[in-house]
User: Fold this.
Amino acid sequence: MKRHVTSTTLFALIMMLVMLTAACGQKELVQPDAVTGSGGQVEDGAEGTPDNPAGEEQPDSDANSGNAEQQPETNTNSGVTGQPEAQPDAGAAQQEKQQIKVYVTDDELIDLIEQDAEISFDSEETKLKAAFAALAQSKEEGKMSLWNNVELLNVKFDNGAAELNIHMPDEARLGSSGEVLAVDAIQKTMFQFEEVTSLNILVDGEAVESLMGHVELEHPFKKQ
Assistant:
């Protein structure tokens, strides 16, 4: 009888131990932050996904798009190249205009005839060049220039002294009366400028005695 009670007690202890072991195993399977409800949805915790296995909260995609780096705007206005607009050169000399007198002659080379001309220039040298160019042409019928076949090589001007370096081709050469008028015409034309006090005429860079062999040249001519 005593042996039967002992066996029954031992069996009861074993069963209690098995039940306790099973209960502990079930508790380990249940996570405190992942208790599921009747609908199978995770409660009080975030469900993991393949891209986010830890279940961390992802930032809103709309918010991310608002933080995208701003791209510079493209100027679509026609004619805009992106290059700085060219500005006028402040140091560029301004062109001036002046009405002057030049001197031509008649067909018979008898006397000088005064003629009006307008010149444009930006320096004393260009003023003298423009005056010589006006002297070398005649706009009126029956009148002729005494310098139209003469080539002006270069001009210098320094402190009132004007210097003209010319080339005299054969067709520019005149007789004695024509040479007298030519020398007189160029002096009258150049000395009308207040700043010109002397005039030196060179031929191919040389201070020759005469332009055409009839009239002696002074080096320089002085304004009277």
About this structure: The beta strands are 96-106, 112-121, 143-144, 151-158, 161-167, 198-203, 221-222. Residues 1-5, 28-50, 61-68, 74-82 have pLDDT under 50 and may be disordered. The longest helix spans residues 2-29.
